[in-house]
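debug: dumping io for the single-chain case to check the tokenizer round-trip. Nothing else runs in this session.
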Amino acid sequence: MLGNAVLFLIIAIIAGAVGFSGIAGAASTIAQILFVLFLILFLVSFFTGRRR
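debug: decoded output
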């Protein structure tokens, strides 16, 4: 999932550099959502992980 966030971030950067503002905005929004989702899942798994 983090890989998808990075992929959409790269797409947003390339599209922004080329001048496709609509595509860049959509890709950056998707990247932000995926990153936040990844961060939440990471924190949940960190606190509910194995405890010995």
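debug: round-trip ok. Helices lie at 2-18, 21-47.
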